Every structure is written in structure tokens, then in C-alpha cells.
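hey so i finaly got around to running the thing on Cytochrome b5 heme-binding domain-containing protein from Sphaeroforma arctica JP610. pasting the sequence first so u can double check i didnt mess up the copy paste, my clipboard has been acting weird all day
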Amino acid sequence: MFSHARYKHRVFYSVKALSTTKPGGTQDSSEAVGAPLKHFTAEELLQYDGTDANGAVYVAIKGVVFDVTDNRKAYEPGQGYAIFAGRDASRALGLMSLKKKDAVPNLDGLEEKQIDVLDNWVKFYQKKYMIMGTVGPNASPGRLPAIATAETKPSE
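ok and heres what it spat out for the C-alpha cells, dont ask me to read them lol
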């Protein structure tokens, strides 16, 4: 079983154009080029679910919101990844699930292998999509949450 307490080392998204790392393990967009990061409520994020043919489509992973509009076709209603659009789909990505009930941010009960799968999805989204902000109770406006990845896990 995965335990968040085991991972003492944390890393941050490498988003040079959007944010800068601050002491104490936070990222601040106040000194960044471009628009500051927005903190979304779950209800606000749901507005970016792909149902508006002209609107943006966002997906959140581990509390970080990505703009997936460039790949809209995959996230539109009726398409394979539609369940991820407009929500934090962390659990579903870790489980490799396309079930709507799994498209939630709760990682409780995921095994270490599933967390590794999720971390690989994070890396993929980081490379491919722009970060728009954060979502969730542990996120702050203009700051990206810490994310434990396979490279930063302490050896056992």
C-alpha cells in the first residue's frame, strides 16, 4: 500500500516560463512571464469539461491543472478520455481506468506501482501541455503543489 508519509523528498514541476521555485518548497508565479497561475475550485474546473465546442479543456493531475485543448478530440464527450476532462483524474490515471467513478483526486489505497504509473502520466502531461493552475484543498493561488516522483523516492 502507498503511504504519502514515506516520501520525504519532493519535487516541483519544471515550468520555467510559468513559475519560480521559492525557499520552503513552493513555486510562485508572481515573478513569472505570462499569466499567473489560477487556483480552481472543483466546480470551476468542471466548466472546462469539453462540452463547450469553443471552450478550453482542462485536466488536473495531483492538483495541477493542464490545458489539453490542443488534443480536444480525445477529451470531448463520448471520447475515450472524456471522463478526465474538467476534473482531477489522478486516481483513474494511476489505475489506468476509464471509469468515471475513478476520475477523482483521492490516491488512498493505491499501490506503489500505481503511483509510479501516475507519476509517468505527470511527466507526460508536463512535456505536452501547459500548466494553467491548481485545484484542490491543499493548493494555493499562484503556487504548484509538491509532487513526489519515482526519481525522488528515498531508497528503502
